[in-house]
């Protein structure tokens, strides 16, 4: 698997949730800050304002998509001046985020201008957050424009159709479409970052750097392989020392440090999602010794693998 695919597959926990919501002006809905979560809003019809807790208001028009990768609290409203009169949406009050809900909200007596939104929330595990996600800003705004990648719009339309008119198979289609939508959002964001140059660092630069990307894909494709810095450098098409320096500068970790972290992240997923014996999981992440695997896992996660499995 490549890096973006693994970020979606490994960091998310539980089932994502989404809602198709129609609001009529005047309206305002607060969304609680939820650490360990990420969410998106897509405007299907009309317009609205996104009011972050600690930033300037953002006007959203039809077709716009916003992504909040760190679960920061915010408010959506028809106008920045409209007061919030209902409880905040959050874990203790999930409306209008009921799983796969198609909710129609109309608090106005005269049925003011309508805004139709597609909302979604992903539960993430902060202890396994991929550094790629940690590098993202609090708010990503992808405005609608003719040059935007068409697959994002297609995913939004397909998800909206499933939520608005559920059919047999919707329970399977919605989680897959939510993961696909998240992948497209991340892909567009990183594609839009400027190419590597000068002292540019971080995951945006790493994913735009072919040698480093080749090494990352090799690690994610086969974490059990007996990788060395020299072998990863060969994947990158560079000599050992320049590759190690380049990888560390862009990714923020030396190649073998990232390799170990990814192996232990993969092992944690296997412990949660399978009944495979520890020796099998150890082999799948590159350890011939179950003892060495358990030692490294405990150092990384703070608990032995057997105990970790029992608690998750």
Describe the structure.
This protein is α+β, with helices and mostly antiparallel strands and 312 residues long. Helix content is 42%, strand content 19%. The chain has twelve helices and ten strands. The strands form two sheets. It has a six-stranded mixed sheet. It has a four-stranded antiparallel sheet with strand order 2-7-4-5, with no helix packed on it. Helix 1 packs across helix 4 and helix 3 runs antiparallel to helix 4.
Properties at a glance:
single chain; about 300 residues; alpha+beta; 6-stranded mixed sheet; 4-stranded antiparallel sheet; 10 strands; globular
Summarize the structure.
With 312 residues, the protein is of the alpha+beta class. The protein has twelve helices and ten strands. The protein is 42% helix and 19% strand.
What are the secondary-structure elements, in order, as H or E? Answer: HEEEEEEEEEHEHHHHHHHHHH
Q: Report the portion of residues in β strands.
A: 15-25%
Pick out the low-confidence regions.
99-109
Largest sheet: 6 strands, mixed
Mean pLDDT over all positions: 86
Structural class: alpha+beta
Distance between the termini: 24 Å
How would the global form be characterised?
globular
Helix segment tally: 12
Helical fraction equals: 40-55%
Query: What's the total number of strands?
Result: 10
